[in-house]
Amino acid sequence: MLSALLVMAGVAIVLGAILGFSAIKFRVEGNPLVDKIDAILPQTQCGQCGFPGCKPYATSIAGGESEINKCPPGGEEGIQKLAELLGVEPIPFGGDTEIKPKAVALIDEDNCIGCTLCIQACPVDAIVGAAKQMHTIVESECTGCELCVAPCPVDCISMPPIEEKITNWKWKYPVYSLARVN
Amino acid sequence: MTEYLLILVATVFVNNIVMIKILGLCPFMGVSKKLETSIGMGAATTFVLTLASGASYLINEYLLGPELAYLTTLSFIVVIAGIVQFTEMVIQKTSPMLHQVLGIYLPLITTNCAVLGIPLLNVQAKHNFMESLFFGMGGAIGFTMVMVLFAGMRERLEGADVPVIFKGTAIGMITAGLMSLAFMGFSGLIK
């Protein structure tokens, strides 16, 4: 009886020690920061920041290799949120990108030949249409990433900026400088 | 050397754990819907089963002995669970790619009765250490082979013209039965 207890307890202790040791020794460190940054980015996967998508850009920011001011669809608001998350000063747009007034794509429907090229380019499925049928933009879905402009063979897509009207006006996000508290 | 080869052939073909001993049917039916997952499951099982056979032999021989023989099942389960957990940690660290492929199947092996069955059969057959290792490895290779063969068949069955009442798991069961019958033919291999 006693030897049975001792054997089982011994086995359990040895296994527990091995597992506990290997849990420390073989710990895998995921990077939760990348996911947090990725959640702020607009997920248009438009590539205007110079990275192949939002996740690579988030990884680059988390690694300290990129500035936070390269995402045009995110705009000033995105920079503000990223600055808040990372505890750095918000900085104006820079690099190869410039901030543009918020715009949605507009298809000149008289000229559209129904080639579906812009539908394939759209990262957020905001273009409806079928082959040899006229295409049109779902304005509420369009993020203004301009990816559909280049593929259009007849140049019928333009990006008119949205004018500020009484229907879409909203309070501006407050801009205040963050101070590190130590 | 010939006897080890004999053990391998015997466990892979003649005494195949799934088809002849009817062990490990849960993953056999559950994870054989796609070829890739069955290969992943087979690889993980092979690794764990070989390790578990060796470890359980050592436990049985040096820790339990004849007077504590009633503890074999209990202690084997504890050891197998520990090995599976350890394997998962090591793989996650050394090869995240493989870890992603194996995914959920790795922890599932803990409850695979073939993994417990083979160490118990080892005890029953009074194998020595090397024989235990080869018995475990052979059993696992046989398991993997049958999984892959069966997964290939099930993928074809998806597109086959099966009567409605036999569709899905039912035809899978019938196929497994036929396969088991076919594997009995291997018993003529060794005289």
Describe this structure in words.
The complex is a heterodimer of chains A (182) and B (191). Chain A is mainly alpha-helical. Chain A has helices at residues 2-25, 32-40, 54-62, 75-86, 117-121; strands at 106-107, 127-128, 136-137, 157-158. In chain A, the strands form 2 sheets. In chain A, strands 1-4 form a two-stranded antiparallel ribbon. Chain A has a two-stranded antiparallel ribbon with strand order 2-3. Chain A is elongated, with a radius of gyration of 25 Å. Chain B has 191 residues and is an all-alpha fold. Chain B has one domain. Chain B contains 9 helices and no strands. Chain B is globular. Chain A binds chain B through residues 3-4, 7-8, 10-12, 15, 18-19, 22-23, 26-28, and chain B through 59, 63-64, 67-68, 70-71, 74-75, 78-79, 82, 85-86, 89-90, 92-94, 96.
Which descriptors apply to this entry?
heterodimer; A: 182 residues; mainly alpha; 3-methyladenine DNA Glycosylase II, Chain A, domain 3; Alpha-Beta Plaits; two-stranded antiparallel ribbon; 5 helices; 4 strands; 4% strand; elongated; B: 191 residues; 9 helices; globular
Question: How is the secondary structure organized here?
Answer:
The complex is a heterodimer of chains A (182) and B (191).
Chain A (H helix, E strand, L loop, with lengths): L1 H24 L6 H9 L13 H9 L12 H12 L19 E2 L9 H5 L5 E2 L7 E2 L19 E2 L24
Antiparallel strand pairs in A: 1-4, 2-3
Helix pairs in contact in A: 2-3
Chain B lengths: L1 H13 L10 H6 L4 H30 L7 H23 L1 H7 L2 H4 L4 H12 L4 H31 L9 H16 L7
Helix pairs in contact in B: 1-8, 3-4, 3-7, 3-8, 4-5, 4-7, 7-8, 8-9
